[in-house]
């Protein structure tokens, strides 16, 4: 079975400082992994995806994530937080056995302070 | 990028009425569409997977007769909440994917969600 664990339910940073949102996965297969962002009362926007190509994945808005198989991790980072980054972030793994069913982590709420 | 439109964005209605939510892929053909439910401050819960031209596959615990899903074309799927009650109040989100079976590397593109409130 596949699963995703987001290690922090809330992360708070100051504007201009680095962001680290942690995610560990469990998968019997070579996984496809995604990070999505959700702003209040909105749907989800894809930040980036890993699909067994380069282990360092660059996404939109300056975010990137590194796939580490030995650590079963896929942490999301950004060098410098912006106020507009405040949102809910979901780490997601894809079930490769069927129709692209997504398995969501519990989410991490990122707060950015001036 | 791929755009998914969900309508309406907000619905408030009386208990016992049926509510239809539409999900459209505007610039691509969505072989597969998904319906999620999200409770306040919680993650997304997959309700069903919808493939064009065939019956939807519901997740365990989701009532098929309560949540009717139709995927009549490659650009439109609808979710109808039948005889809605206050406990059905929630945020419903659809997504669409280019991929079909075993194409798990195709990302899902999400609509903006529908806030359903049953009085």
Describe the structure concisely.
Chain A has 114 residues and is an all-beta fold. Chain A is built from no helices and 12 strands.
Defining traits:
heterodimer; A: 114 residues; mainly beta; four-stranded antiparallel β-sheet; 12 strands; B: 119 residues; seven-stranded mixed β-sheet; 51% strand; globular
Q: What do you see in this structure?
A:
Chain A has 114 residues and is mainly beta. Chain A contains no helices and twelve strands. Chain A has strands at residues 3-6, 10-14, 19-21, 23-26, 32-38, 44-50, 56-58, 64-68, 73-78, 87-95, 101-104, 108-113. In chain A, the strands form three sheets. In chain A, strands 2, 5, 6, 10, 11 and 12 form a six-stranded mixed beta sheet that branches. Chain A has a four-stranded antiparallel beta sheet with strand order 3-9-8-7, with no helix packed on it. In chain A, β10 (87-95) and β11 form a beta hairpin. Chain A starts with a strand and ends with a strand. The mean pLDDT of chain A is 91. Chain B is mainly β and 119 residues long. Chain B contains no helices and eleven strands. Chain B has strands at 4-7, 10-13, 19-25, 32-38, 44-51, 57-58, 67-73, 76-81, 90-97, 108-110, 114-118. In chain B, a hairpin with a 5-residue loop joins β4 (32-38) and β5 (44-51).
